[in-house]
């Protein structure tokens, strides 16, 4: 009888790839986790219980066939594991690095519920795809036949790139328009290298270009080209701009120099990692070096900011969040990594205003909070503790309070593009179709600020809807 290759979670404990020591990793922007070795990947994959109802798969926005590629990894069939992985996910090596697995697939692992520790799904996913790249299994798109239809995509973030990949595989002509000089959106300029090294994103961009995707960079829609011009060039248009408008604090002293937006801070840091000249970084405006840094916010962007500030050589880094640790929206894994690297979290603290010296920020007026009754979302609402205010000294304050959509109808001069009361584009669930014929929208510009994996899902669903639209006249003719 053949030896059972799976269900080894009873004999083998959960193990993660080795994490670099905090003192070493806090001095650079390299990824903090090492790769699994082949035998370790097999071992950890073999812990999967191959359960009849795979909650890991159902709680993955892409519904990745996780049990299948874990079994293939455990039995040494890595090329097949990669093929299964990429069949549902355009960027498995990216999701393996940045998805909050603790809230998605791993957080719903059946063996985790039984007390045995979840399968390390994300680390195995990363290992599979990195191995595929190393062995040349990842090939440029080579459609069986070219089609005449063309699609214009506005935005080169994960949603737009995912849609471009699927459309090119079907032979559709694809052109992506983006305001930045490099494709990738927040993957390139928003997420720090210690979570996602930039060569990982660049090689995927290069692969798409090699597969026939046409990139038009440094292109501002509404300025360099109009939305109507793009519509005239293509049979369909996908809006995949993401949400980049930062939420700012409006309170006493908020106009002081040294109070900056999270995305500006992260973009400057990422540009420096590419070797770009960044004036605001070089003159100290967007650099944390030697400064007392206070980050306001509790999401994943705040975690990116505090850990970036540490690496830039900040004198101290503190994070203010108005709720407690248990109610923090950011990844608990990221909080732990940040604490290891020297970040101090001030829970149940909210800004009330800012002090300044000569127009430059000198401190944050902090009011202490306590958790009161639940709000409309079910979370306990923070309440101010009167008389407990204090001043937290600061030379650089980073606002990481989330993002809102830009006013696209006004910005682009588009009539008839419906938006919600939050400013997001109204689009059909699953297809992404808007009220404008042939115009679709995907990702954060529809959902609001969300996860990369959801943008990929939206891009793929939208591409499928467009392909069905293109096939419809042929189907009618055949009848």
TrEMBL record:
<keyword id="KW-0479">Metal-binding</keyword>
<feature type="domain" description="Dihydroprymidine dehydrogenase">
    <location>
        <begin position="26"/>
        <end position="136"/>
    </location>
</feature>
<dbReference type="GO" id="GO:0046872">
    <property type="term" value="F:metal ion binding"/>
</dbReference>
<dbReference type="GO" id="GO:0051539">
    <property type="term" value="F:4 iron, 4 sulfur cluster binding"/>
</dbReference>
<feature type="domain" description="FAD/NAD(P)-binding">
    <location>
        <begin position="151"/>
        <end position="459"/>
    </location>
</feature>
<dbReference type="Pfam" id="PF07992">
    <property type="entry name" value="Pyr_redox_2"/>
</dbReference>
<dbReference type="InterPro" id="IPR023753">
    <property type="entry name" value="FAD/NAD-binding_dom"/>
</dbReference>
<dbReference type="InterPro" id="IPR009051">
    <property type="entry name" value="Helical_ferredxn"/>
</dbReference>
<dbReference type="InterPro" id="IPR006006">
    <property type="entry name" value="GltD-like"/>
</dbReference>
<dbReference type="InterPro" id="IPR036188">
    <property type="entry name" value="FAD/NAD-bd_sf"/>
</dbReference>
<keyword id="KW-0560">Oxidoreductase</keyword>
<dbReference type="GO" id="GO:0016491">
    <property type="term" value="F:oxidoreductase activity"/>
</dbReference>
<keyword id="KW-0411">Iron-sulfur</keyword>
<dbReference type="InterPro" id="IPR028261">
    <property type="entry name" value="DPD_II"/>
</dbReference>
<protein>
    <submittedName>
        <fullName>NAD(P)-dependent oxidoreductase</fullName>
    </submittedName>
</protein>
<keyword id="KW-0408">Iron</keyword>
<dbReference type="Pfam" id="PF14691">
    <property type="entry name" value="Fer4_20"/>
</dbReference>
<keyword id="KW-0004">4Fe-4S</keyword>
């Amino acid at each position: 009888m053949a030896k059972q290759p799976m269900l080894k979670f009873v004999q083998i404990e959960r193990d993660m790839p080795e994490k670099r020591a905090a003192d070493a990793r806090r001095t650079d922007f390299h990824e903090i986790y090492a790769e699994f070795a082949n035998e370790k990947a097999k071992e950890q994959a073999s812990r999967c219980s191959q359960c009849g109802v795979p909650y890991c798969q159902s709680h993955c926005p892409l519904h990745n066939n996780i049990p299948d590629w874990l079994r293939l990894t455990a039995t040494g069939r890595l090329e097949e594991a990669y093929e299964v992985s990429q069949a549902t996910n355009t960027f498995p090596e990216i999701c393996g690095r940045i998805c909050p697995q603790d809230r998605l697939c791993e957080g719903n692992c059946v063996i985790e519920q039984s007390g045995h520790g979840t399968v390390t799904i994300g680390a195995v996913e990363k290992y599979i795809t990195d191995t595929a790249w190393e062995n040349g299994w990842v090939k440029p798109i080579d459609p069986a036949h070219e089609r005449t239809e063309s699609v214009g995509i506005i935005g080169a973030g994960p949603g737009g790139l995912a849609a471009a990949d699927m459309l090119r595989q079907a032979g559709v002509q694809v052109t992506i328009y983006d305001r930045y000089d490099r494709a990738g959106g927040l993957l390139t300029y928003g997420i720090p290298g210690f979570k996602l090294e930039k060569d990982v994103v660049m090689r995927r961009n290069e692969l798409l270009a090699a597969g026939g995707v046409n990139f038009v960079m440094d292109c501002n829609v509404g300025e360099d080209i109009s939305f109507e011009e793009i519509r005239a060039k293509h049979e369909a248009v996908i809006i995949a701009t993401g949400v980049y408008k930062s939420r700012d604090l409006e309170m006493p002293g908020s106009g002081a120099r040294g109070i900056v937006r999270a995305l500006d801070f992260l973009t400057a840091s990422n540009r420096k990692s590419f070797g770009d000249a960044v004036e605001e970084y070089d003159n100290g405006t967007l650099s944390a070096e030697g400064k007392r840094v206070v980050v306001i916010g509790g999401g994943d962007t705040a975690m990116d900011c505090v850990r970036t500030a540490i690496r830039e050589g900040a004198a101290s880094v503190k994070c203010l969040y108005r709720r407690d640790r248990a109610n923090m929206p950011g990844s608990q894994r990221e909080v732990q990594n940040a604490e290891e690297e020297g970040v101090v979290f001030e829970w149940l603290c909210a800004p009330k205003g800012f002090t300044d010296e000569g127009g430059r920020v000198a401190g944050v007026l902090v009011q202490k909070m306590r958790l009161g009754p639940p709000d409309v979302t079910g979370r306990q609402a923070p309440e101010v503790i009167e008389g407990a205010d204090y001043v937290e000294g600061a030379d650089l304050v980073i606002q990481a309070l989330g993002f809102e959509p830009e006013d696209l109808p006004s910005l682009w001069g588009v009539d008839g593009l419906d938006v919600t009361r939050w400013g997001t584009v109204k689009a059909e669930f699953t297809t992404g179709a808007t009220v404008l014929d042939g115009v679709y929208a995907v990702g954060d510009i529809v959902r609001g600020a969300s996860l990369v994996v959801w943008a990929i899902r939206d891009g793929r669903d939208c591409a499928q809807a467009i392909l069905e639209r293109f096939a419809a006249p042929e189907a009618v003719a055949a009848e």
